[in-house]
């Protein structure tokens, strides 16, 4: 990519927001005084759902009156409508503004702050790893992640909606390790309660004795943003003596059906894989996913470019090629 467009990388969030709000590639490119190609490239790098000439956007436009009625007459909140049509809150606001309907400013205590599809993909990817949802009672649910990498926690604060996390986070604590007396530091982010998390909880958890168990939704759709965050939290790569990489994704806590679903989604993204049984697992399938050697190399090449946390560079080594 030409160096003259590097400055766009600093404004990629704005590019995504403009596009998901309904602006065309041509309009965005005109405002930034560039061609559409560097805009399109950065949108795709952020796994933005592209409109491909407008067909999907036109399809959404056919539901404009329906969406307006749901907000103005049925009282549905913006995020619920956006989830229903698999779009962003900004897109719903765009149609409401065209109909001269004012949107109430969001309140962290009573309504969603407004998540883009990409931000929801981040949360879903974290749920595949070490992230979790906590429901204090029906209708009240918050997201939480504990990680030993501070920059990972700070990344979530920066990338997810403003005001989602209270000031002063991430919180830190020093704990004793499971083996020996070695201590480690954990960084935790805990969100405010959001209705969207309560709706997600219905699909991601099942009731069981004691704590509810996390599951993979039957209709789960994996994209590259979610895969990256899943790999950050619960993925690893070992380089064998031959130089071949061995990329694995932890799934042993999910059911066999859930692991099968994830395998098919990873394969749909282009990475051939298989499952391996792991012993001494009481709750879950005891299986984890491993990529085939030829696709493990490609996975590392693909996501090494997407990884923006230097602390996780060790997860994306450059393997040697035999011979």
Automatic annotation (TrEMBL):
GO terms for molecular function: endonuclease activity. Pfam families: LAGLIDADG_2. Keywords: Endonuclease, Hydrolase, Nuclease. InterPro entries: Homing_endonucl, LAGLIDADG_dom. Residues 121-267 form the Homing endonuclease LAGLIDADG domain. The keyword Signal does not apply. This is Endonuclease I. It comes from Haloarcula marismortui ATCC 33800.
């Amino acid at each position: 990519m030409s160096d003259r467009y590097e400055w766009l990388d600093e404004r990629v969030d704005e590019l995504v927001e403009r596009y998901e709000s309904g602006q065309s590639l041509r309009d965005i490119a005109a405002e930034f005084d560039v061609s559409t190609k560097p805009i399109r490239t950065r949108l795709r790098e952020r796994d933005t759902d592209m409109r491909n000439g407008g067909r999907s956007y036109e399809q959404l436009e056919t539901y404009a009156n329906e969406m307006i009625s749901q907000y103005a007459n049925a009282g549905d909140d913006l995020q619920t409508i956006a989830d229903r049509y698999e779009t962003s809150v900004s897109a719903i606001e765009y149609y409401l503004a065209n109909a001269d309907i004012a949107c109430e400013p969001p309140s962290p205590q009573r309504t969603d702050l407004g998540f883009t599809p990409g931000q929801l993909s981040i949360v879903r990817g974290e749920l595949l790893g070490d992230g979790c949802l906590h429901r204090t009672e029906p209708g009240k649910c918050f997201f939480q992640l504990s990680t030993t990498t501070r920059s990972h926690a700070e990344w979530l604060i920066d990338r997810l909606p403003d005001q989602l996390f209270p000031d002063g986070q991430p919180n830190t604590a020093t704990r004793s390790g499971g083996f020996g007396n070695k201590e480690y530091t954990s960084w935790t982010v805990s969100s405010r309660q959001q209705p969207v998390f309560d709706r997600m909880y219905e699909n991601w958890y099942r009731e069981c004795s004691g704590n509810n168990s996390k599951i993979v939704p039957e209709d789960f759709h994996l994209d590259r943003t979610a895969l990256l965050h899943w790999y950050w939290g619960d993925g690893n790569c070992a380089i064998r003596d031959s130089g071949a990489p061995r990329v694995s994704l932890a799934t042993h806590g999910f059911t066999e059906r859930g692991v099968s679903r994830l395998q098919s989604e990873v394969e749909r993204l282009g990475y051939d894989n298989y499952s391996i049984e792991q012993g001494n697992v009481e709750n879950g399938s005891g299986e984890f996913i491993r990529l085939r050697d030829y696709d493990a190399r490609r996975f590392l090449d693909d996501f090494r470019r997407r990884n923006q946390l230097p602390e996780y560079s060790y997860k994306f080594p450059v393997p040697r090629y035999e011979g």
